[in-house]
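Interim report, section 4.2 (structural modelling).
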Amino acid sequence: MNNQNIQPINEQTGKHYRMHLMLCAGTGCVSNKSFKIKEVLEKELKKQNLQDEVLVVMTGCNGFCALGPVMVVKPDGFFYQQLQEDDIPHLVEEHFLKGRPVKKLMYTPPEEKEPIPKMMEIGFFARQRLIALKNRGLIDPENIDEYIARDGYKALAKVLTKMAPLEVIEEVKKSGLRGRGGAGFPTGLKWELCRKAKPKSKKQNTKYIICNADEGDPGAFMDRSIIESDPHGVLEGMIIGAYAIGANNGYIYIRAEYPLAMERLELAIKQAEDYGLLGENIFDTGFNFDIKIQKGAGAFVCGEETSLMASIEGRPPEPRQRPPFPAQSGLWGMPTNINNVETWATVPSIINRGAEWFASIGTEKSKGTKVFSLVGKINNTGLVEVPMGTTLREIIYDIGGGIPDGKEFKAVQTGGPSGGCIPKEMLDLPIDYERLAEVGSIMGSGGMIVLDEDSCMVDIAKYFLQFTNDESCGKCNSCREGSEALLEILDKISNGKGEEGDIEFLEELGQAIKDASLCGLGQTLPNPVLSTLRHFRDEYEQHIKHKKCPAGVCKALVQYFVDEEKCTGCMLCAKNCPQDAITGKRKEPHTIDQDKCIKCNMCYEVCKFNAIQRK
Amino acid sequence: MRNAGYSMEKIKKQRENIMNHESDIMNQKKVGAAMVVGGGIGGMQAALDLAESGIKVYLVETKPCIGGVMSQLDKTFPTNDCAMCTMAPRLVEIGRHKDIEIITLADVEDIEGQPGNFTVTLKKRPRYVDEEKCTGCALCVNNCPVRNIIYTEPEKEELKLSDEDLQRVRVIINNYKNKKGTLVPVLQDISSQYRYLPAEVLRYVADELGYPLSQVYRLATFYNAFSLEPRGKYLISICLGTACHVKGGPSIVEALGRELGIKPGETTEDMNFTLETVRCIGCCGLSPVMKINEDLYGKVTQKKVPGIINEYRTKT
Ligand SMILES: Cc1cc2nc3c(=O)[nH]c(=O)nc-3n(C[C@H](O)[C@H](O)[C@H](O)COP(=O)(O)O)c2cc1C
Ligand code: FES
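Predicted structure of the assembly:
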C-alpha cells in the first residue's frame, strides 16, 4: 500500500453530525450496562428524529471508572455520569433536542453542591497530561479509521520512509523513555542491545518482539485500559520497535482475565493487516512483520520476562537465571525484545513529536508521563496519567478528590506485591523511579492503592504475602519457603499471638529472601513487609505488645460494640445480622451478643449513624 | 547413608561416653587417620581436603561406587553449573590420591573409642569380582546377558473417551497440529469447552501431542485458570486483588460462603454454583468486584449478596 491511504478520514460514514455522544465501553462501564444505554439512546434519538444529527460512539475506557457509565458530549465537552436507562428520554429531549444540558446527570464533587458541566473543568481530568492514553474516550477503538484520523500510523509512516533503524533507536534513547513494566530499564538501550545481538545461527536468524500485557499487579488496570481504548497505538509502537530492532515476528501475551481487551486486539490486528500495516512488505519498503496473540492462564509469575517466554513455548512457566538476557537468547533461543503495553503505546508520540518534547516532561532521570490506577479508599477512582515528578498530594487530593466519608488518609501502596507503602508524612514526595525506591517502594506497573484510617498495615503486608506465597512458582527455596515462613509470623501477629523478637526476625528473614532469590518475584516479595515495618513499626508493636489492631481489621483482635449515644434504634443492623446476634427494641440502643458474633462486619457496613464501633 | 546399620541410640550412647571421658582425651594417643562416611559430593570434598592436609583418609560408601546423587543431576542450583563438570575432577583426584583409600559396598557396624582414637568396624559386602585384577574395562558389563534383557512397555490401559468427546477433542487438537508451543492453548480450549480438564481427555491429549502426561499435569496444575474438578453451572469469581481487598472483598467471600454453604474452590452439591477467587479482573475502580460467568457486579456489599444469588437460583 502507499502513503496516501494514511490520511485523516473525516467521518466514519462520510456524513456530518452535529453532535457526537462518546459513550464509554470499557470493561467497567460495560458491566454497568453501557451497551443497554446505547440501545436506548439510539431508540430515543430516532423517536426525536435526531438520528442524522447525533451519533453515538462507543469508546474505550474513559478513566473515570467509579462514575460509570459515563458519556461525553462532543464538541462541547459536557460530561454525564452514572446514566440509567430511565434518564435517557429526558436527556435526549432536553439536551440534544432543546439544547438545555441536564444538571441532574452531571458530576458533583463530594461535599460540593454545584455540578461541574464540562469534562475538562473537572479536577480529575483537568490536571492530567495524556500521552499513552491520548486517544482514550475520543475514538472508537474498533475502527482503525478513527485512529488514523487522529494521526494514527503517521509515526510508522515517518519511521519506515524517512528514518534508518539506528536513527529510531537513537531517538528513543534521547527521549529518556524507561520501561513502564516495573523495573524502568531504558527502552532505547534495550532495543539497541537486541538490534546488535548476534542471531543464533545463519539459518535461524529471526528476532522476536513481545508485548507484555500480562498485567499481574492486582489493583492495576492501565494495560487493559490502553488496549481497550486504543489498541492500534500499541500495535503501531510494536511495528516501529520491530523495524528498529530488525524483528519480523511479534507476540502479545495477554492475561485471560481480559476478554474484551483480547477481542479488540484481535480486531485491530485484523484491520491493520487489511490496511497493509501488518504482514508482508509494509508500505512497500520490503519490511515484514506479523503479530500473534498468546493468552495467559492466570499465573502472576508469567509476567516475569523469562517465565513469560517459557509460557509461550509451552514449557512450565518458571523464571530462569539471567544472563543470558532475552536480548541475547530469548524466545526459542532467539534474540528477543520485551516491553510493557504502556511502553509500546508511548513510542508513536515520541516519534511524532520528537525526543526533545518528551524529554522536556518529567524529572531529571524519569521522563514523560506515567499512568497510575488510583483505587482503594479514594473518591475519584480511575486511571490517571500525570507527568513524572507530580507529588502524591496532587494525585490524591487534586485529581483523586481526597478520601471518602471524611476519613483520614493513612498511606498509599505502590508497585503491587513488589512495592511498599508510603505514609502520609511523605505526601509531598514527587513521584518518579528514584524517589519511590528511596522510600522503600517501587514504581511497578503503576498501581496506586489508597489506604485510610480503616486499613491495617499488618493486614496489608499479610495480604501481599498470601499473594506471593500463592504465586511463587516454587523453583527456588528462599522464595518458596521464605514466603511461607514470613506469612506464618504475620499470621501469628494478626491473631494476637505475636512475640517479642518477631519484628527483628521478619527483618532478618526478609533481607535473606531478597539476597537469595532467583527472580524478581522472590527478590521483591519482602518489600511490603519491610516497608510497612519501616514506616508503621508502632502498629506492629501495638499488635504484638498490646494485642490491639488500631484500625479494627484483624478479626482476632477486635470486638464489635454499639455506641449507645449514636444508636437510634433503627433495627437495621439487627435485621441484617446473619447470626441474630443483635438484640434491642425499636428506638432503643441495641446490644451485640459477643458469643454469637462472628465479626462479619455486616452491622458496621449497614449502620447509617456510625454507631457500630470496632475496638 | 540411610541404612548404615548404626542406630541413633548407639550414637547417643557413644556421645555420652565421650562426654564422660572428656578429661581423658588429652592423655590419649592420637591417630593420624580419618574416616569419611558417605561418598557423595560432600564426602568426596571432605576426603580430599583432609588428604591434602596430610591425613590418611578412609572413604566409606554403601553403594558399589562413589559419586552419590550429584552424578545423576544435569545442572545444579542456583548457578546452573553442569554437575558432571564439578564432580569429574574430584572423582579422578580421589581415585589417584595416595592417601585416600576407598571402601565401597561397606556399612558402618560399630564405632568405639574417643575423639582422637576411634575403632570402627565395617561390614563389607562382596563384590564377586577380584578387585585386585579388575581394570574397570566394562567389557563384562556390556556382555552380561542378564543386563541386556529387552525393556518392553507395560501394556496401556484402554482410553475411555466417548465418541462425542473424541470428536470435540480432535477438533481442538487439529487446530494446533504441527505448531510450536501449543500445549497451553490446547488446554485453554479444552477448559473453555468442558469448563474443567477431565482426566481422560488430558491423557488423550498427552498421547496425541506426544507430551509426557507429567508435563501436561504440571501445566494443568500450575495455572490458576485450570481446574481438574468439574465446575458448577455458574462460576462465581470473586476478586481479591488489592483494591478489592481493602474495600472488603474478604467479607464478600464470607457472605457468599454463608449463602451457598461452600468455601472458595468448592462446588454446591446441586452443581449449580462454584466459588473461586481471582486476583484482579481489571475493574478496580468498581471494587469490590464479583463475576458470575460473564456478568460483572461492581461495588458489591454483603447485603447485596443474597439478592444476586437468588437471581441465579430462580434461573436454574
Ligand atoms: C514477578 C514479576 C512479575 C512481573 N509482571 C509484569 C507484568 O505483569 N507486566 C509487565 O509489563 N511487566 C512485568 N514484569 C516485568 C517484566 O519482567 C519485564 O521487565 C517488563 O515486561 C519489561 O518491559 P519494560 O521494559 O517496558 O518495562 C514482572 C516482573 C516480575 C519479576
Ligand atoms: S482489584 Fe479487584 S478488580 Fe482489580
